[in-house]
Structures are given as structure tokens and as C-alpha cells.
Amino acid sequence: MSSINVDVSLKESLKDADTLRDLAEIEEMDFSRIFDRPPRPLNMDRQRSCDERSLSELSAGVPIPSPRPSSRIENNFRLFDHLNCSSSPGRRSGFNTPISQTGVETHPTMAEAWEALRRSLVYFRGQPVGTIAALDNSEEQVNYDQVFVRDFVPSALAFLMNGEPEIVKNFILKTLRLQSWEKKIDRFQLGEGVMPASFKVLHDPVRNNETLMADFGESAIGRVAPVDSGFWWIFLLRAYTKSTGDTSLAEKPECQKGMRLILSLCLSEGFDTFPTLLCADGCCMVDRRMGVYGYPIEIQALFFMALRCALLLLKQDEEGNEFVQRITKRLHALSFHMRSYYWIDLKHLNDIYRYKTEEYSHTAVNKFNVIPDSLPEWIFDFMPVRGGYFIGNVSPARMDFRWFCLGNCIAILSSLATPEQSTAIMDLIESRWEELVGEMPLKVIYPAIESHEWQIVTGCDPKNTRWSYHNGGSWPVLLWLLTAACIKTGRPQIARRAIELAETRLIKDNWPEYYDGKLGRFVGKQARKCQTWSVAGYLVAKMMLEDPSHLGTVALEEDKQTKPLIRRSNSWTF
Ligand code: GLC
């Protein structure tokens, strides 16, 4: 590298450092205003302090107290000790007798849910390492007898919020070991950083031995790539660190390396013209062909979340610093792109409706050459006067206007959505309650595709017929994401309403994986029963409503620098 290059990159990093200092200031915002009742002061101090430190110390010019280059994370979280926050007020020794932290009697569904979650525990050589996807063994199980990385997230959060972090730590370390496996599909070797979709414990009764077997997509139906697994892993590492105050796990050289390997995969340079991540179909929760190929919102929001979590967790050594700079640049570009091109509301919809096409050059308004005739009929009725959301996908001549619940909730939690956009998403959920919640929370995607479109888009998938499974089915697991988003936006009453609906049926129906129908009235055609993430999603939602300070475990405050420059009415254009 020439000296000029060094100067340029130094300046860049100083500029980035300013951004990060701003991030730190934002962490000082009064978080409590977003809750409808005052949070416990101890918890809130703990949460604010933790990110304050980590972010401010990332910025150049802010002295790092410890001379050891490896001490950043430890320093980030040291305030935990002073505030005695490593012992959460929610810590309890057992799951069978859930006690409300507010002294209010808990709903009977809670006790059943804790029991079901306990039954789903998977042990490896005597230690709990995860939860099985579903305990339902009424039919051939396919791979529901495995521990899925994405499915374990709500379980992990339930255990963290209950003061039981060990299983989460075990899971993080075990999956890290799996990452280091040589991964092959036929003759093709997968990237080093790829995290498994799922794993299973194999018992050998003859040798009285246990081994792990992982699936990186080589056994999965359709050979789909679990792009989301690595992002969820980083998210969990940060959730664990935040909730326990134990920085030693994230500081482990193997955790730092695991993180860098995941980041190398998604930050690598290629032919892209967009900062979003290009993916094949079935790369996330929607793990079948459903037209999510390209730049799906779920992955982009998780990507953004994982990058921000990694910023907090990376050590300030030579290798860590290089990633911090790459992440910071990518975050700027990514938030600009998402907020500008994925955001839709009534005003923006009207703009697209009137788009000119075939525009060449920098002055083009319709940058992706989206043809107004491709606007689906349903969107004109669906779009409320107040409200908006991030659409499903954007690429040349393609805007997938479908609503994806997980991506929009993660956009709120990671602050990819500005506060105004977050409010607008909640407005949309409220005004389109029947469509998005109906009788059972929550639609994974809205609306369903049918007839010829279903044939073309899903390849005639009989599991994904209209208003079933991924194609407009209702998934109770999404309750935890909705609840967290509601608390972050100061609208807990929305979550309460949704949870009450779920409580009328979940036990009766034995915790189905998903519900079918426009209103979600029917237990899903092929839904598993005793689906662990339906159980855990409900538990996490309840615990967060009861003690909103848990929000800090799953949410990040806004970064001022990534705010849009110009705001026009309630539309976001640059
Ligand atoms: C289904 C879901 C997927 C989930 C898996 C295990 O394949 O689509 O998101 O991880 O089941 O529950």
C-alpha cells in the first residue's frame, strides 16, 4: 500500500470513527421513553452503559482505558460488574414454577410453555446444547428432530431472560466447532465461514458415544443455503454478552475468528452494484422456493443487525480493526440503499405508479426501471393512508411488494428503520390488523400467491399453497419479534392484543408450527405440533412485555449518521 493510500484509509477511518462516536451518543438517548411503564432503573442503566462503552471506544480520539489491545470488549461490558447486572433480576433457578417479576400472576399458558421448552432440550455429552425443532413424532419427522440455528434463537432468548445462560453459551461454542468442519456438497466446497442450518446428536449405543452431525444445506430439502445462520449466531453472541455481562465468551480467539469468517463471506467484494446481499431462494426462515431469491428483506435486515452487533463485539486488534472499517462503510451504504429503495408508503406508491421508464444516466428517478404495470392489484387497497413498510425485494425491473414480517421487525430492532419508519410500520400493522394478524398472529408473508403465479414462483409446491405455510401462513414464533418491535416503538398494547389472541389457542392446538387461512383460523395443513419456536416465541413475548428492559438484549438504538438526508412528507427519497 502506498503512503497516499495509507493516508486515505486513515482519513476514512477517522471519519468512520466520528460516526461511531455519534452512535455512542445515541446510546445515551432516554430509552425509557419508549416504554409504557417505567423500566427497572438498574436494568436500564446496565443496558445503556454497555453499548455506550463499546461504541465510544470504537471511535478514534476517545481514549481506551486499558493498554491491552484485546481489552475492548471487556471494557465495553465492565460496567456490568459495578451495576451488579450480571445477575439479572429475572434470574430464577427452575422453569417449572414461573414467577412474575412484577408479582402479578402469570398466565397459565406460561407454565405449560416452560414445560414444553424444557422437554425440547437436546443434550450432548451431558450438557444442554440446544432445543429440538419439534417434538411432534406423529409423522415422519424429516429434519424436525434437529436443532436449527434460527429456531434456537427464541429458545436462547427465553433462557437468557430467565437467567439461564449456560445453554446459550454451549450452543454458541458447539456451532462454532461445526463451522470449522470441512463442508462439501457433492464436489463443491462451501465457504469457511458458513454456519450450519441445523445439527443433531447421534448416539452410538455400542460404543456408548455421542457425536454431532450437522447440515449445511447438503441434506436440506432443495439444498438451500442457510445464509441467515451466521447472522443469527452473531446476534446471539451479542445477546448473550449483553444479557450476562460475560465478555469472556465473545473475547475468545475462536469466537473472534468465527465472527470474522462469517463477515468475510458477506463483506467480500464481487460484481455487485448494490450493498445488499445477493442470495438464492430459500436462504432464510422461508427455506423453500417462494420467490425470495435476489435481495430479500429478511436477509438484508439480519445482515444489518449482524454487522452492528459485530461492531460491538470485535476486538480492537489488527484483524478486528480491519473489519470494523469495512463494516462501517457497508452499514452506511446499506442503510442508505434500504431506506431509499425498499421503503414504501402511500406517497411513494403513487410515485411508482406514475414512474417513467427507460431512463438512462444519473438523473434517472426510476433507477431500477420498474414498470408501473408490474404493480400488483392488491397493493392499492392494502396501503393505508398512514403507515409504510420495507418491501420484500428490489433488483433491476423488480420490486416484490409483499410484506415480510421478520425482515420488518428486525429492521425496527436493528434501527435499520428510522424512528419515523418504525412508527409507520407499526401504524401499518394496526391498520391492516385483519390481514396481518387476523385470528392468529402472525402472517409470515402477505399476501399469498395463487394460481398461475403460485405455479411459476413456487414450482407448484404443494406445501406452499395459498394461505398456508410460507405462502401467507400465520406463525406464532413471530410473536417475539412483533412484541420487541412494539416495545421499541412504544406500542406495547399492539403486542398485548396479539398475545391474547395466541393464548386462546396455542395450548388447545398443542403449539402448532403455523396456521392456515386468510385469517389464520386453521391449524396448518402439514404443521408440526409441539413446535419449539412457537413455544419459545410466546415465552419471550410474554417476558418482554412483563419486563420491557429485556428489549436491550435484542435491540439496538439508532445511528444518527445513517438518517436520510432529506425528508419529504412521509416518504423517504434522496
Ligand atoms: C421449516 C421452516 C424453517 C425452520 C424449520 C425447522 O423448514 O421453514 O424456517 O427453521 O422448519 O423448524
UniProtKB/TrEMBL annotation:
- Origin superkingdom: Eukaryota
Q: What class of enzyme is it?
A: hydrolase
Please verify whether the record's keywords include Coiled coil.
no
Q: Tell me which Pfam families the record gives.
A: Glyco_hydro_100 (PF12899)
Q: Which family does it belong to?
A: Belongs to the glycosyl hydrolase 100 family.
Which InterPro entries would you find in this protein's record? 6-hairpin_glycosidase_sf, 6hp_glycosidase-like_sf, Glyco_hydro_100
Purpose of the protein: Invertase that cleaves sucrose into glucose and fructose.
State any GO BP term from the record.
sucrose catabolic process
User: Matching SUPFAM superfamilies, A to Z?
Assistant: Six-hairpin glycosidases
Q: Where in the sequence does UniProt note compositional bias of the Basic and acidic residues kind? A: 36-55
Q: Does the keyword Hydrolase apply?
A: yes
Task: List the molecular function annotations (GO) for this entry.
Answer: endo-alpha-N-acetylgalactosaminidase activity; sucrose alpha-glucosidase activity
Which stretch is the leader sequence? none
Its UniProt entry gives the catalysed reaction(s) as: Hydrolysis of terminal non-reducing beta-D-fructofuranoside residues in beta-D-fructofuranosides
EC number(s) on file = 3.2.1.26
Spans annotated as Disordered = 36-70
Protein's recorded name: Alkaline/neutral invertase
Q: Which keywords does this Swiss-Prot/TrEMBL entry list?
A: Carbohydrate metabolism, Glycosidase, Hydrolase
Q: Which residues form a coiled coil?
A: none
